[in-house]
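idk why but the lab printer keeps eating my pages so im just putting this in chat instead. protein + 5'-O-[(L-methionyl)-sulphamoyl]adenosine:
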Amino acid sequence: MAGKSDNTFYVTTPIYYVNAEPHIGHAYSTIVADTISRFYKLSGCDAFFLTGTDEHGDKVVEAAKKAGETVKSYVDRIAAIFRETWPKLNIANDYFIRTTDENHIETVREILTRVYEKGDIYFSEYEGKYCVGCERFYTDTELVEGKCPIHLSKPTLIKEENYFFRMSKYQGWLIDHIRKNPEFIRPERYRNEVLAFLREPLEDLCISRPKRRLSWGIPLPFDENYVTYVWFDALINYVSALGYPDGDRFKKYWPVAQHIIAKDILKPHGIFWPCMLKAAGIPPYRHLNVHGYWNIDAGKMSKSLGNIVKPMDLSSKYGLDAFRYFLLRDMVFGLDSDFSEQALVTRLNADLANDLGNLVSRSTTMTSTYFDGLLPDPGTLDEEDLSVRDATLKAVDAYRTEMEGFAFHKALIAVWEVIGRLNKYIDTSKPWNLAKTDRERLAAVLHTVTEAIKIVSVLLWPFMPQSAERIQQQLGYNELGLALPLDDIKEWGKIKPSRPISRAPALFPRVKPEEKPEAEAPALVSLEDFQRLDLRIGAIKKAEPIPGSDTLLKLTIDIGETRTIVGGLAEHYTIDELRDRQVVVIANLKPVKLRGIESQGMLLAAVDEAGVFLLRPDKESKPGSPIR
Ligand code: MSP
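predcted complex ->
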């Protein structure tokens, strides 16, 4: 909650690494921050919304190298792409921070000095397993089969002298703080995750990198041979952007700070950051709001899989507000969600074009036709009108509670209940008949519907500012958006339109679901078709590398007869792992020549983002056994 008494609100997104361009995951966090910040502004709060870019560290240096640019020109270029993308998505951040900004660098050095002088930073030798992708050391228990659980790559063993932050000292305090403030980290599953982590002794945090290994960073104020570890640098953006320690903004907004992140960076935000703040003598943030991951085709989104979803593509294809609405409606904040364009189209057609779009268009058309666009006085309201009014006003309260709890999908459900109710109310009241029989009832109904739509438009403004403003214009309100604050709409009929109601083109044109090209359609096969496949159990007798190929192996397989099959397994299995392994073979595939070798069949395997996994029978079976 922003806290009614302070009437201020401060929200942040993660600052994004400039090693890639914005994708749907970045867009989601930033649109969430925009929506919540608009909501508080609408509630009359003085709200401040921060986003920005994280520009130091090995990852960024590597990306610049790959792009063939100097690090400076590379970070400038990508940071500009982020900065320019947000306004196109109607994201109205109040400040954009870059960790290469002078004032940020100064603040990092100031906080380091404070913590160092307090005795919470010491020098020591360290040997550890380091993942370049994550920019962090891993303990053995965190590694999965010796590999980084995120990048699935082997970490590098690094031994060096470094500076350490005495994080362990703050473990007890942090546990206590989380216990006493149940909403400090929310939703609860992530609070529990952090508490579970804190059950083990907390290690001190290595916060430096020797300059000879990495020079692209903020030099430590007490040892110029070292630069600051990228996380110690990055987290501080949340206070440096406010002008810590003396800035007015810091004094005003820090006490109500709320961070938004996804689950991938829970540990730095849930553990490092509160301990850093405590050591620096800064009060902890108020809430850490943690959301899940957007998955694509039920798997991870990654450059190597080539399934990056770009926000601008979707927004130009389907409309910005449809995109924003879909993101906030389809993801339950805190849980993972599967992204699909089909789901977006379904939401657009059903919720936006059908429910909301139709409601606005039929009601404004009727007022234009029957009352020349002049909103009629309601006259006496009957029971049904009053019940519609009460349900609408009640939804405002439900919406508020859900928004404050970051339950965006529930806030939207509350609004759509009103929209559904209004459409039904029109259907049963039949204004087109009343126009002929009862002008008084007609006035009451159209007034009620129009007043309720105005409220709906205000509630939707944080999610879909453009459409909400268009609705308000159509309803004859001159001022846009903030002109209709949340508190005022609670008084039914208080704000009156100053212009006639007008007809306007459809708010959300329907989109035809895309027809899939023939080849992609999951065509049904007949049993006969299936039976034409000669599937058999095989046993690999020999696996040999193929000169000149890093991926292919030549396999000699017993399937009741001996076959040679060339398979792309070299990156996934060792020769030893393959020897004598049982597999599933398609034996009647037309032979093909690969690297000069005739491949006489194919092996079945499961393929996902983690690799390729050969199928084999549950129990050892006789080579050549048919599979049915
Ligand atoms: N630079 C650090 C954050 C430092 S904050 C002091 C970083 N950057 S990042 O570019 O990798 O961004 C991570 C964040 O991007 C996630 O926490 C989340 O906000 C967003 N997302 C990235 N991929 C995502 C999904 N697939 N789904 C949802 N959001 C995700 O970590």
